[in-house]
Amino acid sequence: MKIGVLPIGKADAAVMVWLTERLAEVFPDATCLVTDETVPLREDTFDKKRKQYRSHAILGEVQGFAVRKRGVDLVLGVVDADIFVPELNFVFGEAACPGKTALISLWRLRPEFYGESPNETLFLERVLKEAAHELGHTLGLGHCSRSSCVMRFSNSISDTDIKQSFFCNKCSLHAKININKLG
Ligand SMILES: [Zn+2]
Ligand SMILES: [Zn+2]
Q1: What separation in Å is there between the alpha carbon of 133 and the centre of ligand 1?
Q2: Is the peptide bond preceding residue 98 cis, with omega within 30 degrees of 0?
Q3: How many Å apart are CA 86 and CA 88, to the nearest integer?
Q4: Percent helix / strand / coil, the chain, rounded to 5
Q5: Ligand nearest to the CA of 171
Q6: Of 61, 94, 130, 134, catalytic
C-alpha cells in the first residue's frame, strides 16, 4: 500500500519529508512518500466571515487529486491554514471514513498558536499524531476510548498531547486488516 503526503499551498517541505518517515513507522506495511505535485490552496475555500478555510472543500481538492493520481492508495493533504467544518469552531483534520483521502492542518499544532514558545519537537509529534489519526479514519477506524491510542478524539491540543502516535492493539489489528485489503 502507498500513502502519499500532498502539500496544499505553502507547506514546509522538511516537515513533509519528516512526516513520511515517521508515518512509515506507524504504518509498517505501507510505503510513504511526498507526492511530486502540490495543489494550490484555493482562495474560494476561504470563509471571509469566519476568517478560516472550509475543510470539506479542501478535502474535496485532495479527493480530486486522488482520482487523478494513479498508484497511490491513500492521500493525506497537509495545509498550513486554519480550517473548520460548519458545526465546529475548528478542526485539526478531516477524513473520508472509510475512504482514500484525509486532510490535516498544521495551523493549531504550533505551540506559538497558544502563546507558548516555539518547540519543533512538540510541533512535529502533533503533526504525526493528527496525520496517523486521520489516516486511521480512511482505513475505517472510528474513535477509540483508550486514552493513549492515536484514534482517541482530540477536542483540544491537550488531548492531542496526551495520546501517543501509535494505534492501540485493537485499532492496529483493524487497520492492518484493511491495509492488507488494499494490497
Ligand atoms: Zn477523528
Ligand atoms: Zn485504539
Answers
A1: 6
A2: yes
A3: 6
A4: 40, 20, 40
A5: 2
A6: 134
Pick from 179, 150, 180, 153: nearest CA to 165: 150
pLDDT of 126: 98
pLDDT along the chain (183 residues), means of 10: 96 96 94 95 97 98 94 96 97 96 98 98 98 97 96 96 96 89 76
pTM of the predicted model, to two decimals? 0.96
Paired with 32 in beta bridges are: 3
Residue 134 a catalytic site member = yes
Measured between alpha carbons, how far is 156 from 177 in angstroms, rounded to an integer?
Answer: 30
Query: What pLDDT score does 181 carry?
Result: 82
First to last CA, the chain: 6
Task: Give the span between the Cα atoms of 36 and 108, in whole angstroms.
Answer: 26
What is the whole-number distance in angstroms between the Cα of residue 176 and the centre of ligand 1? 18
**Residue 160: is it exposed, middle or buried by C-beta count within 10 angstroms (0-12/13-18/19+)?**
buried
Q: Return d(Cα 131, Cα 135) in angstroms, integer.
A: 6
CA–CA separation, 17 and 73 (whole Å): 18
Q: For residue 49, how far is its CA from the centre of ligand 1 (angstroms)?
A: 26
How many residues comprise the chain? 183
Phi first, then psi: give them for residue 95, nearest 5 degrees: -155, 155
